Amino acid sequence: MESITRNNHQNDKSAITYKDMFLGSVGVVYFRRIKITEKAGEHASLYVEAVLDSDTNENDLHEIKDSVSLMYRKEGKEHVLFYGVVDKVFMNKDGGEWLIRLEARDGTCQMDVERRKRIFQNPQMSVRQLISKVMDSYSGSDHMVHLPAEPVGQLLVQYEETDWEFLRRFLSKYKENLYPDPAFPDIRFEAGLSPKPENQNWDKLPYKLSQDFIRLESMKENGIHELTRSQNTVYQIESYDIVSIGSQITYKGTPWYIESAERRLRDGLLKNCYCLRQKESLKVLPYYNGNITGISIDGNIASVKRSQVQVNMEIEAGDGEKYWFPFSTVAASSDGSGWYCMPENGESVRVYFPIDDEKEAYVVTNVKGQKPQAGNSSDSMGNPNHRNIQTAQGNQVQMTGEGVLIKAGNGQGSIFLKKSGEVVLDAQKDITILAAENLNITAKKDLTVKSQTSIQVSCGSGADIEVKKGTVGLHGSEIHEN
Q1: Structural domain contains residue 281
Q2: pLDDT tens for residues 385-437?
Q3: This model's pTM is above 0.85
Q4: Closest C-alpha to 157, from 312, 356, 366
Q5: 89 shares its domain with 226
Q6: Where in the sequence is the domain holding 307, given as residue range(s)?
Q7: How far is the C-alpha of 377 from the C-alpha of 368, rounded, in Å?
Q8: The Gp5/Type VI secretion system Vgr protein OB-fold domain covers which part of the protein (predicted)?
Q9: Residue 134: inside a domain, yes or no?
Q10: Is the predicted pLDDT of residue 8 greater than 60, yes or no?
Q11: Which CATH number does the domain housing residue 221 bear?
């Protein structure tokens, strides 16, 4: 780490003083300490230590609301400096004074409470649509998206993640971050860096200049190869101006962005310490959700196309097109040979996630969920020594200790290849044997042909032999008898 310091001065007439500030729901005589911390990707925090009104008593602790607003007056108008949710509050009496210590986080902390499981299947959903879908459950919230208006292009899975964790990880795919806005009286954040520069002139302010070589090498080794030493430079500037993190500032003729801000009450004035980085240095390395590695999510087949399937899943969110998953077959090769046996619509399957990157998911078969009826002797799962392949249309191949049985149409026709060498053909209607040339039937012993009504042997020239009950008829232009 290397740093350089340069000192100048700023007119303190524009500063916010301790007299200008007040807590929205707590009567404060004066503030002893104020500290606001804002950083990219994290919830903003507030720490306040103040002296309360003289008529305060210990019962007032129970009247303090679970939300807090730190405000200031300037030129006759009230402005919000911090609005958030109270985490901790302490009251104690020091001599004749009541003191309050209060800790709070901005509204985005409400997105970081409940862990959810949901799947966004539509690859045509845009980045803005995805973020809006996540934020639908937060009434009164606001957000700005500074990312390209393009489809997400892949399967997205929120698994055992809070909404805040999920959006942070999602934005890392674009090497961007979340920037909370604690001055908004509800949940508000910006996704990505603001493209519009703020009207601030900080060129003559005091600053510290630093360079983090360890961070530089880490980012270059992990995908941000184009980052240079000059782009990795950090300016630390102290100002009385109130500017949000993620904002663009033109500093010394070059665009810079505010990565973090720390606001403190010192000498009765609110002083803001900003860290400025260039856009390339604020890129985030993509990362994944390790919780998903090795899990399977149940579903059923919605559609099949070649070696891909679409799946209905219980925890899916969003509307529109479904994602096409690859289906794991028993055996396959690049030339198309091997096993091709796709599941049917409605069939139960599992979506399997082999690694922490959800776009590598594929579909595998599920445990058969059929429950046999009482007294059903045709239960295909009744004997574990039998191997059975069956379709919803009633077609079946069953391998047993006696041989191989092939059925069609729920037993309308079957072929039984017995282990003894016997072959049995059975049909509820016709059996048709066609040969383009010759058909040879040979038996080393007996050849038996039986019929309940008649047997007819004929050829295309019009000759035939017809056997009926008790009679044999010979028909032809010539009949030779030896």
Answers
A1: yes
A2: 788 777 777 888 888 888 888 888 777 888 888 888 888 888 888 888 888 88
A3: no
A4: 356
A5: yes
A6: 290-365
A7: 18
A8: 304-365
A9: no
A10: no
A11: 2.30.300.10
